[in-house]
Write a structure and sequence with these properties.
The protein is 72% helix and 2% strand. It is an all-alpha fold. It has one domain. Helix 5 packs antiparallel against helix 7 and helix 7 packs across helix 12. Converts cobyric acid to cobinamide by the addition of aminopropanol on the F carboxylic group.
């Protein structure tokens, strides 16, 4: 029940706050550590592998150790700290708000939409049409359901389950696991580019870590859209997506909403469909929000049932 309370704390903070200011966000602090790795090295793969192994582990130890220490003093303090840690490793409300703003601007203020898209998708928006901007917003929102929410919630459940199985306290390990996954994902987002050899180990680690959350997110989206067959439909479009994981939630969104989602020159999902209009894109973002609520609910059920 303590772990379920921690999930409730995280969900409540997400609903009430959304996301702390960047200057106060521990993920941004961790990003500064990662930034120190982002330079030229004589042996970039060795340095990158060491960083990918040690930096997320260090974060997990700090978070898990803090929760364990709090538990020795006051169990409810440990719950609050674990809930805060889980909240800081997830993002939903801010993602949805940003996406809705970009989609609205795509119809009313195209330059503003192009500028706003930079906060969602790492692509050059200067030549994108309104429909392509809406497509990018839907793609990014769907992908970030996995990266920004489901991955940490799943790690929380799996970490606590493993801890329980080996006779350890579930809450510290669960919180530490969520922090570890967020650290891995942050390293990939900062370093995981082909031009940065030092980031290759983090990118490969993130591919492995995100395998399950991406597919869980696709299932959640299918449920939220009332379209269980959309996951199966998405499979046929995924070969062109460079990432082994991100195509699953994006393709499921394309199938469920019956729209074409396209990154020009890279991939097309549901090529028979049309680019999303404003109403369809906004509805897709809302469905991602419903999938996020489902993720919180199922996480709470999971920790009650298994811990």
């Amino acid at each position: 029940m303590l772990s379920a309370l921690a999930v409730a704390v995280a969900g409540g903070l997400e609903l009430a706050i959304g996301e702390p200011p960047t200057r106060l966000h521990p993920v941004a602090w961790f990003g500064r550590l990662v930034g120190a790795v982002d330079r030229e090295w004589d042996h970039p793969l060795a340095v990158g592998a060491l960083a990918a192994a040690l930096l997320p582990l260090g974060v997990a130890v700090v978070v898990g150790g803090s929760v364990a220490l709090a538990a020795t003093r006051e169990p409810l303090a440990a719950v609050a700290l674990a809930g805060l840690a889980l909240f800081l490793t997830t993002s939903l409300r801010s993602l949805l708000s940003t996406a809705r703003g970009v989609i609205a601007d795509s119809d009313a203020d195209l330059p503003a939409a192009r500028d706003g898209l930079l906060a969602l998708a790492g692509r050059d928006a200067s030549a994108l049409s309104p429909g392509e901007i809406r497509s990018a917003a839907v793609e990014s929102t769907s992908e970030n359901l996995a990266d920004g929410l489901v991955a940490s919630l799943a790690a929380f459940v799996l970490g606590g389950l493993v801890a329980t199985g080996v006779g350890l306290s579930a809450l510290p390990v669960a919180a530490g696991a969520a922090a570890w996954v967020k650290a891995v994902n942050t390293m990939d987002s900062m370093l995981g580019y082909r031009s940065k050899r030092v980031g290759t180990p983090a990118a490969r680690l993130d591919d492995a870590v995100m395998w399950l959350p991406a597919r869980l997110s696709a299932l959640l989206l299918a449920l939220a859209c009332g379209s269980p067959q959309s996951v199966a439909r998405a499979r046929s479009w995924l070969d062109g997506v460079p990432s082994p994981n991100s195509g699953w939630p994006m393709g499921t969104a394309a199938a469920a909403m019956d729209v074409r989602l396209e990154k020009p020159g890279v991939y097309v999902l549901n090529p028979a469909g049309g680019l999303p209009d404003v109403a369809t894109a906004q509805r897709s973002v809302t469905r991602v929000g419903v999938a996020g609520v489902l993720a919180y609910f199922l996480t709470g059920l999971g920790v009650v049932a298994w811990f």
